[in-house]
Amino acid sequence: MSEIEHLMEEARDVAAQSYSPYSHFRVGAVVVAEDGRHFAGCNVENSAYGSSICAEANAITSAVAAGVRRLTAVAVACLDTDECYPCGNCRQLMREFDVAQVIVQDGAGGTRSHTLAALLPHAFGPENLQNG
Fold this sequence. Notes:
By secondary structure, this protein is of the alpha+beta class. The chain has a single domain (3-129), classed as Cytidine Deaminase, domain 2. Helices cover 28% and strands 23% of the residues.
């Protein structure tokens, strides 16, 4: 099994733990730290929709809580649709941690790999906040 297939399997496994009683849209994500460690997260919904947490954000914050500051890849899987791309907020969160590769389901049983720059062109990042 390739590394990408393994990551997608991990993402599907954690998607099964999703708490999504409102949308029934079960999403799982696995982020890969620069040192190779994997951190998983699933979406956690809330009846106050704005309080819901995306799988990607859940996985990223778990990595950050473990001291990670650079992520090399994020794999995203959904059990309830063929394709599953990160929302804009999660793309911006990925930008903060220099994610290079975003791996998603392709709708035909395979995967697609994208650079974050392709998914979030002209991104706003820490360098935009520097003076001068």
